[in-house]
Design brief:
mainly alpha, about 200 residues, globular
Amino acid sequence: MFWFIPLVIFLAVAIFSPGPNNVIAMSVGFNYGFKRVIPHLLAVVVGFSIMLFVVGIGIKELILKYQSAFEVMKYLCSFYLLYLAYKIATSKPNLNTNEAKPITFKESLLFQVINPKSWIAALSIVTIYLPKDNFLAALFITIIISDILIVLAISTWAVLGKSFNKIFKSEKTTKIFNFSMAILLVVSVLMILFVE
């Protein structure tokens, strides 16, 4: 059971640290409120759970063998994040959150599929942290723990975004906040592309 504590530490750091999913949650929480973050939250849980399971049952060998496919995923993800950054930066402050449209479940799920940081996390979990003995049981335990941590992290970032909205209520501060979130996404793209 020694594998469990290092795994939980890795999961907590990977899931709670600033990254595209958390920045999106904060931005949606700020602009639309917590309820509108739920589709994104569910998509992250579903997407990462499926990814971790698929990697665990054997796709890791294919991914490690065909690095070019991973590179294509990295560039697709980067393009999609730049698109999201553009949408966030150019979104008009809308005080009527019932009319506005944040990221959908489908859009967020698509992002999970092409997110190279999630693939790296899943590969790291499966190849470094999970024991060879009782591997399948450890994999399912890991999926459950990651799901719990994802719900906590996305919720925390969304509530933080909503709290900022209460402080910064003007159109000008909303534009500044949105632009700042867009810049964070662009920085995360640059890190994906150039820091490895």
